[in-house]
Specification:
The complex is a heterodimer of chains A (122) and B (107). Chain A contains no helices and eleven strands. By secondary structure, chain A is mostly beta strands. The chains are: A mainly beta (122), B mainly beta (107).
């Protein structure tokens, strides 16, 4: 059974960088059939997909246009995990952040992290 | 981006009621439509994938239907543990997008 476990700080100052990590068990970040995503949820924006990383003979990334200039998602094959970095945060980036696995022909999100409430405040 | 519109945004129902939630996509997504249940303080949980396929372990009172742009999630007989918020999500194209959610409350 696949599990993803998130870690990272819950408070970030405005203009600084939000950094979260997602550790994978029961699957590989290098899987040829999965993609590893970051999704956030806030009352104002609902569930918002931020981006993903995946391996298909080489590494690929896709990012949401709304954060494309500020986001980086990186795999770490040595630790079987992936990370999120979101630069230049503002209070509008306050949300619960989830890591998740996206898999299968119909692209289901079948494994979610526990969620991390990240508050952007000085 | 494909916009997903759910209705209603909330509903009140009683245990044993039949409940239907609808989801409309801004363009055809074939059957690349998934449904999730979310309870307070928890991550969403997959119920239905490919519009009508029941995820393993999900009770058979949940069912999904539709294709193209119009979809529905039906709970045939609402149980106490079903009071939650439900989301649709399209996986036809990137970016993945979600509906705004339907909160099912106790009448």
């Amino acid at each position: 059974q696949v599990q993803v476990q998130q870690s990272g700080p819950g408070l970030v100052k405005p203009s600084q960088t939000l950094s979260l990590t997602c550790a994978i068990s029961g699957d590989s970040v290098s899987s040829n059939s999965a993609a590893w995503n970051w999704i956030r949820q806030s009352p104002s924006r609902g569930l918002e997909w931020l981006g993903r990383t995946y391996y298909r003979s080489k590494w690929y990334n896709d990012y949401a246009v709304s954060v494309k200039s500020r986001i980086t998602i990186n795999p770490d094959t040595s630790k079987n995990q992936f990370s999120l970095q979101l630069n230049s945060v503002t209070p509008e980036d306050t949300a619960v952040y989830y890591c998740a696995r996206h898999i299968g022909a119909f692209g289901t999100i079948d494994s979610w992290g526990q969620g991390t409430l990240v508050t952007v405040s000085s | 981006d494909i916009q997903m519109t759910q209705s209603p945004s909330s509903l009140s129902a009683s245990v044993g009621d039949r409940v239907t939630i609808t989801c409309r996509a801004s363009q055809s997504i074939n059957n690349y439509l998934n449904w999730y249940q979310q309870k307070p303080g928890k991550a969403p949980n997959l119920l239905i994938y490919a519009a009508s396929s029941l995820e393993s372990g999900v009770p058979s009172r949940f069912s999904g239907s539709g294709s193209g742009t119009d979809f529905a999630l039906t709970i045939s007989s609402l149980q106490p543990e079903d009071f939650a918020t439900y989301y649709c999500q399209q996986s036809y194209s990137i970016p993945l997008t979600f509906g705004g959610g339907t909160k099912v409350e106790i009448k």
